[in-house]
Amino acid sequence: MRTTHYGTIARTLGVAALSLLCALPAVHAEEPGKALGNLFQNLLKQGTAAPAPATGAQHSVATNSGDLASLFSQSIEQIDEAKEIEMGKQLAAVLLGAKPLLPNLALQRYVNRLGRWIALQSARPDLPWTFGVLDDAGFNAFAAPGGYVFVTKGLVDALNDESELAGILAHEIQHVVGKHHLKAMRKSAQAGLLTSLIAARLSERSNGALHGQLLMLGKDMYSKGLDQSDELEADRVGVALAARAGFDPYGLVAVLQGLRTAAPDNPIFSLQLSTHPPTQVRLDQLELAMGQRLDAYSGKPSLTIAQRLARGVGR
Fold it and tell me: CB neighbours (10 Å) of residue 275?
């Protein structure tokens, strides 16, 4: 009972935080302290409230235990955009429930605007793209279906300049564009995981059984990672996407070169390294894919993130 209660609070906090991220560009520069204070007060209040009943698109996803099996028996292309976005919203709320947003409104605004600009260059510019920074010391980035992308404070702090951040965001954007997370969850469901999840959840007295199954599939995916082919595709397309957005395409390469020396047992890097192909493999594949084709877009001067924020970009 206690686990269910805390899980409900985490999901409620996550949904509230997602609402804030979507509204970030509208916040005025002269009131960041006030806006952030109000935000976290609201999160605490909402975290103690009873969860609201599912409505609209959410209801279409979380209705009964048979729907998820039906959903993943379809091809990925048959899952319409509204369902994809709602599934992503619930999975993003799980990430926000586990790690809160970093209380730095200027950085949140900057990452949101940078991410949205890069996403406009992608094959799915019209998704409700939402970006945020998690208050976590680990070196990680996450995405969820429908346009939700998060990076950790530890990752941002470790980057040398914004071309590296652009490369990471472009990589995560391509995961969303390519529906890689939906493919991974479908694969897990069809492998038999869904059957055991249904059995476990049907014993609970909750009309959110399907919601729980979906979230458990998502947690399994984030802990195991995506297919190697999807990660390599996100690298290849990501460097081109960053270049199209006006950034040095070798920003992602620089990040990977730094990761190559990271110890696998270092807790800061352990999840990143365990859920992705070997870093040298990624570098080799990028070298083959890029050749000299993107060299004309490289060598551009790039600001550090601190310099960009000091200039007031994003206000």
Answer: 16
Contacting residues for 165 by C-beta, under 8 A, at least 6 apart:
111, 114, 151, 156, 159, 251, 305
Q: Cα separation of 165 and 133, whole Å? A: 12
**Bridge partners (DSSP) listed for residue 152:** 134
Which residues does residue 131 pair with via DSSP β-bridges, in sequence order? Answer: 149
| Tokens 């990076």 sit on residue | 151
In what helix (H) or strand (E) does residue 133 lie, and over which residues does it extend? strand 130-134
- 280-284: Cβ within 8 A, 24+ apart: 281/232, 282/231, 282/232, 282/235, 282/256, 283/253, 283/256, 283/257
How far apart CA 46 and CA 43 sit, in angstroms, is: 5
| Tens of pLDDT, residues 78-121 | 788 998 998 899 899 888 888 999 999 999 999 999 999 999 99
pLDDT in tens, 266-281: 889 999 989 999 999 9
Structure tokens, 158: 């470790």
User: Phi and psi (nearest 5°) for 195?
Assistant: -60, -45
Query: Given phi > 0 = left and psi -120 to 50 = alpha, else beta, which region is 147?
Result: left
The answer to whether 226 and 180 are in contact (CB under 8 A) is yes
**In the numeric block, which tokens belong to residue 143?**
């995405």
The two structure tokens encoding residue 180: 């890689």
Asked if 43 contacts 17 with a C-beta cutoff of 8 angstroms, the reply is yes
Q: Read off the tokens for 164.
A: 């590296």
- Tokens describing residue 98: 């586990």
Both tokens assigned to 264: 């696998």
